[in-house]
Amino acid sequence: MSTSRALSYSAVQPRKTRLVRPRTVSTVIGYAVLIVFCALFILPVVWLFITSLKDETEYAAWPIHWWPNEVQLVNYWLAVTMIPFAKYLWNSLALASIHTVLVQFSSALAGFAFARLPGKHKQFLFTLILATMMVPAVVTIIPQFVIYGQIGLVGTWWPWILWGLVGQPFHIFLFRQFFASIPVELEEAAEVDGCSPFRIFWQIFVPNSWGAIAASSIFSFQWVWGDWFFPIILLSEDNTTLAVKLATGYLNPHGVRLVTPQVAATMIYILPLIIVFFFAQKHIIQGIVTTGIKG
To answer: Fold for domain 75-292?
Structure first.
């Protein structure tokens, strides 16, 4: 009797089945596409690193040698000794940092105004700012050069300071969208306590916007760090950036370009950006994703 009762009891109990997530064809295809794209993006950097370890004759040899017969670490020594590498590295770091800090402050302030402050024509002004992103940069090069030349700013860092003070359309858009997603209750509670708009911006919105700040910072820093065109036309030989010297500084006594030391210098040059991205990628991706939460 007890045995039959036990059997009947076990029959009414639901069986615990182990859920196995099926590996569908679309999932496999998705991972395959991601792997292919990752390889396409990583391959140029890998090839750059391998080239930096080659001799000049191996670089120009045919057929191509994928790995050097003898690793030439001396290329990295030549990269930092053939030009005043530390001086121009400091110029790039200082100029990019100054521009980045100014862009963050001015763009965040403008984004806060468009997101939170009342205004009769602010939507029109915001649309006008976004429309300037469609204007090709090459159209404004000559007017800017003429204006900066007439007021004596060519050969100085002032153009980058002015660009930072007025903000950038993309960064204003990024901060505006991010600030629009912050709960209104925080702002209303601060207003009840008597906070001014600037204090609300500085003590509530900025501390809660590290994702947007990280994304905006890496974009603005990378623009100055990797830019070659504006420094070569607006800066002098003494205060130019490392990007310019990488293109013009590695020559032998006969004026022939030395490729492998130049590539080694390029590897050193891109290393800070790679390190910053790996440490801040979570905040950067979060800042980009949350810009479209609320219109």
So the answer is: MetI-like fold (1.10.3720)
Comparing 60-69, 85-94, 217-226, which segment has the lowest mean pLDDT? 60-69
Tens-digit pLDDT profile for residues 241-272: 999 988 888 887 777 788 888 899 999 998 87
Domain ranges in the chain are 24-72, 75-292
For residue 153, CA distances in Å to 166, 237, 256 come to 16, 15, 33
> Are residues 220 and 100 in contact, defined by beta-carbon separation less than 8 angstroms?
yes
Contact 246/188 with Cβ under 8 angstroms?
A: no
Residue the block writes with tokens 């965040």: 108
